Hints:
By secondary structure, the chain is of the alpha/beta class. About 35% of the residues lie in helices and about 15% in strands. The protein is built from eight helices and nine strands. Residues about 1-15 have low confidence and may be disordered.
Amino acid sequence: MLRGLFKGLRDIVYPPVCLSCRASLKNKGSVDEAVCAECWGAIRMNAPPFCEGCGRHFPAGTGRCPACSGRHFHYDRSFGACRYDDRIKELLHAFKYGGRDYLGRTLGRLLAAFYREYDFLFASAEILIPVPLHPSRLREREFNQSAIFCECLASASGKTVAGGMLLRRTRTRPQAGLEKEDRILNVRGCFLVENGAPLAGKHILLVDDVLTTGATLSEAAKALKDAGASEVTALALAN
Length: 239
């Protein structure tokens, strides 16, 4: 009752607006009272064929897109649920840095919908593992966005989340704003696997929020394979 009263007062003082286009949500359809129906419907979901390197839509049908040609990734395949355009950027920024942690479940719907649509791509994966934050960054943010997305995928797939197996030993600089080669160097050697983690022969579904160059997910996949994982598929909300 008190929560409902507080929400009512808050909405009077601060009328809810779409976090993407900033239009008022009053008397307007919305998703979780956060995103207007128009912006939600305009989010571009990725569809096959996919590039074998970055997982983005690749019209050629097979092989790698020009951006991935000649590059080595430690994961076996990667996919992104939707295009990393301005709408998704706005929502992710509000989620991670704007104090709107409830958006994790909202955005997680997109990831879960993609998983269900293309579940045959992930059927053999046995364990869900989120890309971890460094402990100091986790204390600052108070949540790991990738772990929240993992929970959404667990609900959609019935698979087990193994949080805590993959660790981040180095607090790296944010990848945003770095050039491709700097991104690779920035995350090199920053992940390790907890001693005794039962990964031998396992197919891991590695989950993150954004895949741009693939450097972070590739380095995390390397740590998992060094610990005995036989296959790593990377899945991000957006790429």
